[in-house]
Amino acid sequence: MGEYSRKVPVVALRGMAVLPGMVIHFDINRKISMEAIENAMENDQLVLLVTQKDPETEKPGKQDLYQIGTIAEVKQIIKLPGNVIRVLVNGTKRARLEDLIEEESYLVGEVEVLNEEIENQLSEAEKKAMIRGLKDILEVYFIENPKIGKEVAKQLMKLEEVHELIDQIAVNVPLSLEDKQDIIETVDLIERYQTITVILTEEIDVIRIKKDLQAKVKEKVDKNQKDYILREQLKIIREELGETNTATEAENYLAAVTELTAKEDVKEKISKEIERFKNLSGNSSESAVSRGYIETLLALPWDKVSTDKADVNHAEKILNEDHYGLDKVKERILEFLAVRVLTQKGDSPILCLVGPPGTGKTSIARSVAKALNKEYVRISLGGVRDEAEIRGHRRTYVGALPGRIATGLKNAGVKNPLMLLDEIDKVSSDYKGDISSALLEVLDGEQNSKFVDHYVEIPVDLSEILFIATANSVQTIPKPLLDRMELIEVTSYTENEKHHIAKKHLIPKQIRKNGLELKQLGISDKALQRIISGYTKEAGVRNLERKVGELCRKAAKEIVSADTAKVKITDKNLEKYLGKEKYSFQRANTKDEVGIVRGLAWTSVGGDTLQIEVNVMPGKGKFELTGQLGDVMKESARAGISFIRSVSRKYGIEPDYFDKNDIHIHIPEGAVPKDGPSAGITMATAMLSAITDQPVRADVAMTGEITLRGRVLPIGGLKEKILAAKTAKIKLVLVPKQNKKDVEEIAAEILEGIEVKFMDTMEEVLEEALVQKA
C-alpha cells in the first residue's frame, strides 16, 4: 500500500540503481537531469531516482523507465569541468512512478511513496529466523568472496532489522543491475527476503564454479609454464652437450605428423616413436636408427590416394598407340577399367603376363599406368633370395630396411599405384626364407589389406594397389602363388607383327634416341623383313630393336663424318651395315626322304623346327639316342618303338627284325639340349619310315605326344610351333585333335598358307605323313 502521493523531480539513471539506505555520488551530464537536481535543491532536496531500461535512450519516457525507484535526498552538488555535475544522494524510500510529466526542461513524476512497515507485522521468531538465515548465507558468501572488506562484513553482521539488512546487502554486495532492480521492485518484505536469498545462493554457486575453473586454468597454465621451463632447461643442457639438432628434428617430425594423411592410431604410434627419439642422445647409433624409422613412416602414403582416369576410350587409345597386337591383354585391362567405372572402386585384380622375353610385358604395364593415370612402380624379383626383401628386416638388425613393397609404396607417394612385379618366375628360396610364400600375403586380396612389413611394424593397406606380374614361364611359379594371379598369355609375334611394331614404334624410338631426325634415316620394307628373318631369332622384338639401334648409330656416324643429308637402307646394302645374315631357318625338304621327319618345338625365344633322323643297321637290337635329349624325349622315343613293335605285323615287319637290327635316333645340333613331350609322334614316324623304307612327305611337320597304344596326346606352345612351320615353308602341319580349340584361337594371318590337320591316333599320322608305295 502507498504511504502518500506527491510530485517529485525525476532523474533517470543509466546503468545503475540506487536502493533505500544507500549513500552514493554519481555524475550527471544530461540537461534534463541537471535541471531536475537544481529544482530539487530549490525546494525540499528530494528527487526520484529511477533506472532506465535502455541506457542508450537520451530522452526517456515513462515506458523507458522501470516502474519502481527510490526517493533520495540530494546532499551535495559539485560542478566539474566539461559541463558535468557530481551529486551526492542518500536513498530513503521506495516509490512507484504513477505518471511522468515533462515540465519545460526536466522530468517531474507523479509518485506514490510505498509503505514498508510490514516488518512490524512479523513475529520476533520470524524476524530472528530471517536475520539468522541471511547472516548464515552471508558468512558463506564472505568466505567464498574474500574481496568484501572485513569492516563491511562486520557492519552487515551487526544489523538486526530485516529490511535494513536486505537493502544493505544489496548496497554492499557486488550484484548485477538486474538483481538490484529486482530487490528495489520487491516491496513485500518476505518476497524480498526470498529474492535476496536466491540471489546470494546463486552468487555463491557462481563464485565456486568460477574458482574451480580458475583453479583448473591455473593448474594448466602452471603445467605449461613448468613444461616451458623444463624444455628451456633441457634445451640449454642439449646445447651444452651439442645435441640441439635432435629436439629441432623432433619438433619438425611432430609438425609433419599433424599434416600426415593417416588414421589416428597410425599418427599416435608415430608420435610415440618421435617422443622416444626426443630423449635419445643425438650422437648415439640408436638415434640414427630411430631417425631413419620415423622418416620412413612419415614418407609412407597411409591414406593418400591418386584419382584414376576412368575413361575407357582414352585407355584404349593409349594402349593401341603404345602397343601393336596383344588384343587379349588390352581387352582384360579395359574390362577391369569398365568394372571400376561402374562400381566406383572394384577389387584390383592381380594380373600375370606370361610370355617369352621381349614381347612387351613390362612396357604394357607402363602403358596401363599411363592410361589409368596411376603412379608406376617396378619391382624386379629376378634372383631375389632373401625373404626380407619382401617383408623387410626387423629393426633389431644392423642396417635394417623396409621391404621392396613398402619401399615401392614410399616412392610412389600414394597407396593405389600400379606395381609391376617383374620376373616373378625367377624368385628362389634358400635358408633365408621362401620368397614365393612371402608374396602370398602381398597378392592375396583377403590378407593384403593389413600387410605387415617387419621394419614398418604398422599394418599397411595394399588392397588398392593394381598388381601386374610378369613371367617367362609358369612352370617355376609355385601353385599357391599361381592360384592368386590371373594368367594372361603374351605369345610370340609373327613376322608381320614384328614388321608393324618396328615401323610404328622401334624405328622412331631409336632414331630419336640416337640424335637423328625421321627424315635423316630411311629403312625399306624389304630390308626390315631381312633384319627380322636373317639377323634376329626371337619371340619378341628386343634383338630387333638392338639391330635397328645399330643401324641408327652407323647412320649417325655416316651423316656426321661424310656430311650426308640422309641414309637410305635397303635389302641390297643391308649387309654393309649389319654384316652377313646370322640365322637361317631350315626350309622344308625339297624331296621326300626315308627316316627324316620335321618336328616342331617350343623354345623360350619362340618356335623352331627340329629335323629328326633315324638310321637302321644290322646289329643286335641296340636302341641308341643322340643329340642331347632330355629324359622326357627319351621316354617318348621308347614309347614310340614299343608302339611300332606292337603293330609290326600290320606293316609287314618280320618278328625277329628288332633282334637283328640296331636303331639310332639323332636330332641335329647335338650341342643344344632338347627336351619336352611333343616329339613322340615325330620320332615314331621317323622310326617306322626307316624300318619300312617308306619315304616321309617333305612338306609335312608334326607335333604331339604318343602313348604305347598309339594315341596322340595334346601339347602346348602351338602358336609358336605353327609360326616356325610357316617360316620353314611347311605346307601341312599335323597336330593332336585335342588341340583343335587352341588352333581356333590363332589369328588367320598365321594360318594363311598352312593346312592344319587334327590327329587322334598314330595310324592317322602315318597315313598322312608316309608316302604310300605304288
Automatic annotation (TrEMBL):
Q: Which InterPro entries match?
A: AAA+_ATPase, ATPase_AAA_core, Lon_bac, Lon_bac/euk-typ, Lon_lid, Lon_proteolytic, Lon_Prtase, Lon_prtase_N
Q: What SUPFAM superfamilies does the record tag this protein with? A: P-loop containing nucleoside triphosphate hydrolases, PUA domain-like, Ribosomal protein S5 domain 2-like
Q: Which residues form the Lon proteolytic domain?
A: 591-772
Name the source's superkingdom.
Bacteria
Q: Which UniProt keywords apply?
A: ATP-binding, Cytoplasm, Hydrolase, Nucleotide-binding, Protease, Serine protease, Stress response
Name the top EC class: hydrolase
Span of domain Lon N-terminal: 8-204
Family, per entry? Belongs to the peptidase S16 family.
Q: How does it assemble?
A: Homohexamer. Organized in a ring with a central cavity.
Q: What is this protein called?
A: Lon protease
